[in-house]
Write a structure and sequence with these properties.
This protein has a single domain, classed as SGNH hydrolase (Rossmann fold, 3-Layer(aba) Sandwich), CATH 3.40.50.1110. Helix content is 41%, strand content 12%. The protein contains 8 helices and 5 strands; from the N terminus they run αβααβαβααβαβα. It is globular, with a radius of gyration of 16 Å. The two termini are 18 Å apart.
Length: 230
Protein backbone atom coordinates (compact mmCIF):
# COMPACT_ATOMS: atom_id res chain seq x y z
CA UNK A 1 0.00 0.00 0.00
CA UNK A 2 1.41 3.41 -1.01
CA UNK A 3 0.72 6.35 1.32
CA UNK A 4 1.84 9.96 1.10
CA UNK A 5 2.44 12.03 4.18
CA UNK A 6 2.55 15.75 4.97
CA UNK A 7 5.28 16.46 7.55
CA UNK A 8 5.89 19.83 9.28
CA UNK A 9 8.76 21.93 7.90
CA UNK A 10 10.77 21.73 11.14
CA UNK A 11 10.83 17.93 10.80
CA UNK A 12 11.98 18.19 7.18
CA UNK A 13 14.90 20.39 8.24
CA UNK A 14 16.07 17.98 10.90
CA UNK A 15 15.90 15.12 8.42
CA UNK A 16 18.55 16.87 6.32
CA UNK A 17 21.01 16.52 9.22
CA UNK A 18 20.17 13.02 10.46
CA UNK A 19 23.25 11.32 9.06
CA UNK A 20 25.85 14.11 9.45
CA UNK A 21 27.81 12.25 12.12
CA UNK A 22 28.58 9.35 9.81
CA UNK A 23 29.55 11.23 6.66
CA UNK A 24 33.29 11.06 7.32
CA UNK A 25 33.23 7.36 6.52
CA UNK A 26 32.65 8.12 2.82
CA UNK A 27 34.67 9.70 0.08
CA UNK A 28 33.41 12.70 -1.87
CA UNK A 29 31.86 10.51 -4.57
CA UNK A 30 29.76 8.73 -1.93
CA UNK A 31 31.49 5.38 -2.01
CA UNK A 32 31.97 3.46 1.20
CA UNK A 33 35.38 2.99 2.76
CA UNK A 34 34.35 -0.21 4.46
CA UNK A 35 31.87 -3.07 4.30
CA UNK A 36 29.17 -3.54 6.93
CA UNK A 37 30.22 -5.42 10.03
CA UNK A 38 30.46 -9.20 9.70
CA UNK A 39 27.13 -10.85 10.37
CA UNK A 40 27.30 -13.70 12.91
CA UNK A 41 25.27 -16.88 13.13
CA UNK A 42 23.39 -16.67 9.82
CA UNK A 43 21.29 -19.78 9.28
CA UNK A 44 21.00 -20.51 5.59
CA UNK A 45 17.65 -22.29 5.89
CA UNK A 46 15.78 -19.31 7.39
CA UNK A 47 14.22 -16.58 5.22
CA UNK A 48 15.93 -13.24 5.74
CA UNK A 49 14.87 -9.62 6.06
CA UNK A 50 17.76 -7.25 5.29
CA UNK A 51 17.69 -3.82 6.96
CA UNK A 52 19.65 -1.76 4.42
CA UNK A 53 20.39 1.84 5.27
CA UNK A 54 22.50 4.38 7.13
CA UNK A 55 22.94 5.48 10.75
CA UNK A 56 19.31 4.95 11.77
CA UNK A 57 19.56 1.36 10.56
CA UNK A 58 23.08 0.79 11.87
CA UNK A 59 21.98 1.93 15.35
CA UNK A 60 24.24 4.96 15.78
CA UNK A 61 24.91 5.59 19.48
CA UNK A 62 23.03 2.47 20.58
CA UNK A 63 23.97 -0.97 21.79
CA UNK A 64 23.36 -3.74 19.26
CA UNK A 65 20.36 -4.99 21.23
CA UNK A 66 18.85 -1.46 21.14
CA UNK A 67 19.02 -1.06 17.35
CA UNK A 68 15.86 -1.39 15.30
CA UNK A 69 16.99 -4.51 13.37
CA UNK A 70 17.59 -6.33 16.66
CA UNK A 71 14.25 -5.15 18.07
CA UNK A 72 12.52 -6.12 14.82
CA UNK A 73 13.94 -9.62 15.16
CA UNK A 74 12.47 -9.85 18.66
CA UNK A 75 9.03 -8.70 17.49
CA UNK A 76 8.97 -11.18 14.63
CA UNK A 77 9.97 -14.02 16.94
CA UNK A 78 7.31 -13.04 19.49
CA UNK A 79 4.63 -13.06 16.80
CA UNK A 80 5.71 -16.45 15.48
CA UNK A 81 7.38 -15.30 12.24
CA UNK A 82 10.50 -17.34 11.45
CA UNK A 83 12.62 -14.65 9.77
CA UNK A 84 16.23 -13.71 10.40
CA UNK A 85 16.84 -9.95 10.39
CA UNK A 86 20.21 -8.82 9.04
CA UNK A 87 21.54 -5.39 10.02
CA UNK A 88 23.18 -4.07 6.84
CA UNK A 89 23.24 -0.45 7.99
CA UNK A 90 26.33 1.76 7.57
CA UNK A 91 26.48 5.23 9.14
CA UNK A 92 26.95 7.91 6.50
CA UNK A 93 25.75 5.76 3.61
CA UNK A 94 24.42 7.44 0.47
CA UNK A 95 22.31 6.09 -2.38
CA UNK A 96 25.50 5.66 -4.42
CA UNK A 97 27.14 3.82 -1.54
CA UNK A 98 24.06 1.62 -1.46
CA UNK A 99 24.46 0.77 -5.15
CA UNK A 100 28.10 -0.14 -4.51
CA UNK A 101 27.27 -2.67 -1.78
CA UNK A 102 23.79 -3.99 -2.63
CA UNK A 103 25.09 -6.94 -4.67
CA UNK A 104 27.28 -8.02 -1.75
CA UNK A 105 24.23 -7.95 0.53
CA UNK A 106 21.98 -9.79 -1.91
CA UNK A 107 24.50 -12.61 -2.25
CA UNK A 108 23.23 -14.02 1.06
CA UNK A 109 20.98 -17.04 0.65
CA UNK A 110 17.23 -16.82 1.08
CA UNK A 111 16.80 -13.04 1.30
CA UNK A 112 13.06 -12.34 1.05
CA UNK A 113 12.63 -8.67 2.03
CA UNK A 114 14.85 -5.58 1.78
CA UNK A 115 14.04 -2.59 4.02
CA UNK A 116 15.53 0.27 1.98
CA UNK A 117 16.31 3.42 4.02
CA UNK A 118 18.66 5.74 2.14
CA UNK A 119 18.65 9.28 0.75
CA UNK A 120 19.17 11.74 3.61
CA UNK A 121 22.93 11.89 3.05
CA UNK A 122 22.28 12.66 -0.62
CA UNK A 123 20.19 15.60 0.59
CA UNK A 124 22.95 16.73 2.95
CA UNK A 125 25.47 16.69 0.11
CA UNK A 126 23.12 18.39 -2.36
CA UNK A 127 23.18 15.42 -4.74
CA UNK A 128 20.77 16.09 -7.64
CA UNK A 129 17.50 14.27 -6.93
CA UNK A 130 17.59 12.67 -10.37
CA UNK A 131 20.89 10.96 -9.48
CA UNK A 132 19.62 9.81 -6.10
CA UNK A 133 16.44 8.49 -7.67
CA UNK A 134 18.44 6.62 -10.32
CA UNK A 135 20.61 5.04 -7.61
CA UNK A 136 17.60 3.94 -5.56
CA UNK A 137 15.97 2.65 -8.74
CA UNK A 138 19.08 0.55 -9.43
CA UNK A 139 18.99 -0.91 -5.90
CA UNK A 140 15.30 -1.74 -6.22
CA UNK A 141 15.78 -3.36 -9.62
CA UNK A 142 18.64 -5.52 -8.36
CA UNK A 143 16.54 -6.63 -5.41
CA UNK A 144 13.57 -7.45 -7.65
CA UNK A 145 15.84 -9.38 -10.01
CA UNK A 146 16.58 -11.65 -7.03
CA UNK A 147 12.84 -11.89 -6.24
CA UNK A 148 13.39 -9.82 -3.10
CA UNK A 149 10.46 -7.65 -1.96
CA UNK A 150 11.29 -4.04 -1.00
CA UNK A 151 9.91 -1.87 1.79
CA UNK A 152 10.88 1.69 0.81
CA UNK A 153 11.38 4.33 3.50
CA UNK A 154 10.90 7.84 2.14
CA UNK A 155 12.81 11.01 2.95
CA UNK A 156 11.79 14.66 2.64
CA UNK A 157 13.70 17.82 1.68
CA UNK A 158 13.32 21.16 3.50
CA UNK A 159 12.25 24.30 1.58
CA UNK A 160 15.71 25.80 2.17
CA UNK A 161 16.96 23.56 -0.64
CA UNK A 162 14.84 25.50 -3.11
CA UNK A 163 11.36 24.75 -4.41
CA UNK A 164 12.46 22.71 -7.41
CA UNK A 165 14.97 20.61 -5.44
CA UNK A 166 12.49 20.06 -2.62
CA UNK A 167 9.77 18.92 -5.00
CA UNK A 168 12.00 16.58 -7.03
CA UNK A 169 13.67 15.05 -3.97
CA UNK A 170 10.52 14.56 -1.91
CA UNK A 171 8.48 13.06 -4.74
CA UNK A 172 11.25 10.69 -5.83
CA UNK A 173 10.34 8.17 -3.12
CA UNK A 174 6.58 7.85 -3.63
CA UNK A 175 7.18 7.90 -7.38
CA UNK A 176 9.55 4.93 -7.08
CA UNK A 177 7.12 3.15 -4.77
CA UNK A 178 4.33 3.65 -7.28
CA UNK A 179 6.42 2.66 -10.30
CA UNK A 180 7.69 -0.54 -8.68
CA UNK A 181 4.51 -1.25 -6.67
CA UNK A 182 6.38 -1.23 -3.35
CA UNK A 183 5.19 -1.00 0.22
CA UNK A 184 6.03 2.58 1.26
CA UNK A 185 6.75 4.08 4.68
CA UNK A 186 6.74 7.90 4.26
CA UNK A 187 8.39 8.92 7.55
CA UNK A 188 10.53 6.58 9.62
CA UNK A 189 10.77 8.94 12.61
CA UNK A 190 7.06 9.52 13.05
CA UNK A 191 6.33 10.35 16.74
CA UNK A 192 10.10 10.52 17.44
CA UNK A 193 11.53 13.57 15.67
CA UNK A 194 12.09 16.58 17.92
CA UNK A 195 10.89 14.70 20.99
CA UNK A 196 13.76 15.35 23.44
CA UNK A 197 12.89 12.38 25.63
CA UNK A 198 13.08 10.02 22.62
CA UNK A 199 16.40 11.15 21.18
CA UNK A 200 20.06 11.05 22.10
CA UNK A 201 21.96 14.13 23.24
CA UNK A 202 22.50 15.21 19.61
CA UNK A 203 18.74 15.66 19.29
CA UNK A 204 18.82 13.71 16.04
CA UNK A 205 19.34 9.99 16.58
CA UNK A 206 16.74 8.02 18.54
CA UNK A 207 17.63 6.78 22.01
CA UNK A 208 16.58 3.26 23.06
CA UNK A 209 12.95 4.28 23.61
CA UNK A 210 12.89 6.16 20.30
CA UNK A 211 14.33 3.12 18.56
CA UNK A 212 11.49 1.02 19.93
CA UNK A 213 8.96 3.42 18.42
CA UNK A 214 10.87 3.41 15.12
CA UNK A 215 10.69 -0.37 15.16
CA UNK A 216 6.91 -0.17 15.58
CA UNK A 217 6.68 2.20 12.61
CA UNK A 218 8.57 -0.26 10.43
CA UNK A 219 6.75 -3.30 11.73
CA UNK A 220 3.34 -1.88 10.85
CA UNK A 221 4.43 -1.54 7.23
CA UNK A 222 6.36 -4.82 7.21
CA UNK A 223 3.42 -6.91 8.37
CA UNK A 224 1.58 -5.96 5.19
CA UNK A 225 4.26 -7.80 3.24
CA UNK A 226 5.00 -10.89 5.29
CA UNK A 227 1.82 -12.83 4.55
CA UNK A 228 2.40 -12.58 0.80
CA UNK A 229 6.11 -13.44 0.77
CA UNK A 230 6.80 -16.96 -0.45
Amino acid sequence: MIRRSVVPVFILIILGCIFFNGCSEYSVDGTSSEKPLAIPNIKLDRPKIVAFGDSLTAGFGLLEKESYPYLLQEKLRADGFDYEVINAGVSGDTSLGGVDRIDWVLEMDNVKILILELGANDLLRGVPPTKMKANLDAIIKRAKAKNVRVLLCGMLAPPTMGESYQREFTTAFPDLASEHKLTFLPFLLDKIALQKELNQADGIHPNPEGARIMTENIYRALRQMIATVG
